Amino acid sequence: MSVLDLDNSTRVLGRSPSAIAWSHLKSDKTAWVSAGVVFFFIFIGAIAPIFPHILHTDPDAFHPETLDENMGAMPIGSFGGISSAHWFGVEPRTGRDIFLRFVFGARTSLSIALTATIVATVIGVFIGLISGFFGGKIDQFFSRLMEIVLAFPSILFALAVTPVLESVLTDAGIPQGNATRIPVMIFVIATFGWPYIARIVRGQVISLREREFIEAAKALGASKWHLVFREILPNLWAPILVTVALNIPTFITTEAALTFLGAGVIEPTSDWGAMLLASVPFYGVDPMYTFIPGIALFILVLAFNLLGDSVRDALDPKGSR
Amino acid sequence: MLSYLVRRIVGGITVLAFVSIFVFGLFFVIPADPARLACGKSCTPELMAEIRHGLELDQPLQVQYFRFVKGIFFGRTYLPGTEAALHCTAPCLGYSYQTDELVTNLLKDRVPATLSIAIGASILWVLIGLSSGILSALRRGTWIDKFSQGFALAGASLQIYFVGLVLQFIFVDKLAWFHAPGYVSPFEDPKEWALEMILPWLTLGFLLSAIYARLTRAGMIEVMSEDYIRTARAKGLSNRTIKFKHVLRAALTPIVTVFGLDLGGLLGGAVITEYVFNIPGLGKLATEAVTNVDLPIIVGTVLLAAVFIVVANILVDLLYMVLDPKVRLS
User: Fold this and answer.
1) What is the pTM of this model?
2) pLDDT tens digits, residue range B176-186?
3) Which residue of A has its CA nearest to B141?
C-alpha cells in the first residue's frame, strides 16, 4: 500500500454540529418513541373532524339513551359506558361521546399551547437578543421587566386578568365566548412564558457578542440589526430549540390548569382541562371520566419531557447521562 | 455585604411597587364600573353612590392609589366622620363590599390553611426529592437509579388536578383511610388537622419532589467529577466525608434557590391544590374572588403572593452567601 492510497481508505468525514446532533437523535430510541407519541396526539387532533363521520354523532350531541335515569343520569354499563358505539364511554348527565370530546379536546389544548409557545418564543428570543446585544440601559430595562414578570403570582394573576382582558376584547366588538377566551389564554400564557426563553437567549448573546466573527462583521461595516439577526441569531438555534422543547410541556399544563380553574375554554368547546373540570363532581362514581383526559395529559407531557431531554442531550455534548 | 442587602431590599420594593401599580391600575381602570361590580344583585342607585363614595372611587386614580399605599403602612379610615366610619389598621389592604369585610382580615383567616399545606408539603418534597436524588447519584446505573429516575419523570409529568382527584377517589372514597381534605386548626384538633391535610401533602410532595430528585442527582454527578473531589480523595479523606461534606454541600447550593422560589410561590396560595382539595386557603380565596369579580380581594391576594415571592428571592440570595464561599468573598 502506497502512501497515496491513504487518502482513499481513511478519510475523515467532515460533519457539521447539526449533523452530529441529528445522528445522536436518530440512534436514541426514547426520542423516537416520544416523538411518535407527540405526533400521534397532534395527528388525532388534526384529523378530529373525521371522527364524527365514522361514529355518526357529534362531540356536542346529547345521548340520553346511554344514561340511567334512576342512577342520577350516570352512564349505563361498566367503565363509564364504554361500548362499540362510544369507544371511551359517555359523559354523565349529558351522554355526550367522550372519545369525540377527547379528540376535539386534543385539538383545542394543543393548538392553544403550541400557539402560545410560538408567541412566547418570538417575544423571548427578540427581547433576549436585543437585551444581550445592546446591554446598558436597554438590558437593565428588560432585566427589570423580567424580574417583575417573574415576581407575579402567575396562575393567580392569569385567573384575575382573564375577565378584565375579556371585557376589553368584547368592548372592541369581538363576540363573547371562546372567540375572546382563546386569544386571552394565549396572551396570558405567553406573557408569563417569555422571560424563561429571554433569559437563556440573553446569556448566550452576551457570550457570543465579543467573539471574533462579530468583530469581523463589524469591521466590514455591518449594521447592528445585521449583526443581531444575521450573525448572532443563526448561532442560537440549538439553545433556543432546547429551551422551547423543555417549555412546551409547561405551556400545555398551564393551558389545562387555567381551563380547569375556569379561566379557559368554555362549553361546548371541548378541551382536556375542561373535561377534567367537568369530571370533578363525578370522580367518585365514574372515575373513567377523570382518567381519560388525565392519563392522556400525563402521556403527552411525559412524551414532551422525554423528547426535550433527548433533544438537549443530542445538542449539548457536555451533558452526558 | 450590608450594601448588597440594602440594594436587594430596595430592588424588591421597586418590584412590589410595580406589581401593585399594575394590579391596581388594571383592575380599577379597565372594568366599566367597580362600584357596579361591588354593588351586587340587589343594587339601588343610592347604594351604588354610597359604595362609590365609600370606596373613594369618586377620587382620581392616583389619589386612590396613594391612599391605598398609605393604608398599607399607616392604616386608614373609610367614610370618616360618618356613622358608618370603618377603621382599618395597618397593613390595610382595602375593603371588600361584597363580603363586607376588611381584606386584611380575610387574608389573615386564610393564611393558616395555606401555611399548613406549604410547610407539610415542603418537608415531604425535600425529604423525598433529596434522598431519591442522592441514592440515584451514588448508585448510578443500578436499578435504584433507574427506579428513582422513572419516579422523578412521572412526578414531573403528572398534574395536581389529576393526581389529586385520583388519590381522593382511592384513599377517601374507596379505602376511607383519610378524611376528605379540609382545614381544622392544629391547635384545636391536631389529629383531624393531619388527617385532612395528608392528601394535599402527599400529592404536592410527590409531584414537586421530582424536580429536586433530578437536580440533586445531576448536581452530585457534576460535582463528583470536579478536581477538588479528586484532591480530597488523594488526601485520604473517607468516602463518607467526601460524599456528604464535599459533594452534597456543593450540589445543594442550586437546590436552595429552587426551594426558596417554590416555597415562596406556594405561600402566596397553592391555587390549584386548594381548588382540587377544597381547602380554604389564600388560593381558594383568590379563585372565589375572581369568580365573584371582588376586586379589592383580588388586589390583596395578588399583592400578598408577590410579597412572598419577592421575600423568598431575597432570602435565597442571602442563604446563597452563607452556603457558597465564593459568593461570600466577592
Assistant:
1) 0.83
2) 888 778 888 88
3) A321
